[in-house]
Design brief:
Elements lengths: L4 H12 L9 E11 L2 E5 L5 E5 L15 E5 L12 E6 L3 H5 L32
Length: 131
């Protein structure tokens, strides 16, 4: 039997707003690869790679895409001896709101979809040269 819609809406509402501040054990990470079975490989701002698990409350409710951002807690699996380095606590959905927070890492800058401006003069909207 499927989960009631109120659970899905509550999960979506929970992830829409960023927290006021982060715990010392939490960090924002970029999703680099989906490993399968609700496991994701993420990259911290320092460049280290972690294997994290998506908790059951987010499964089939929130989808994570490669290159997206998540909030990771690294102390969740300290007492267990396994290959998991942490757990996804929150999924960044409204990226604009999250980027305004003071704790957003400077290494995760917004990439422009436009190509870089070059020193060469643009020929857009100009007549071809006359010879």
């Amino acid at each position: 039997m499927a989960k009631p819609k109120r659970h899905l809406l509550a999960t979506a509402e929970e992830t829409s707003n960023p927290p006021a501040n982060l715990e010392p054990t939490q960090a924002i990470a970029r999703v680099s690869k989906g490993e399968g079975k609700n496991l994701y490989s993420v990259e911290l701002p320092s460049g280290t790679s972690l294997l994290v698990e998506l908790p059951a409350r987010f499964r089939s409710a929130i989808w994570i895409k490669r290159g997206g951002f998540v909030l990771v807690d690294t102390t969740t699996f300290d007492d267990r001896k396994n290959k998991l380095d942490g757990e996804i606590v929150n999924v960044v959905r409204e990226e604009k709101q999250w980027r305004k927070q003071a704790y957003w890492p400077a290494t995760f800058v917004k990439k422009s979809s436009l190509p870089e401006d070059s020193d060469d003069e643009s020929t857009v909207g100009k007549m071809p040269p006359v010879e």
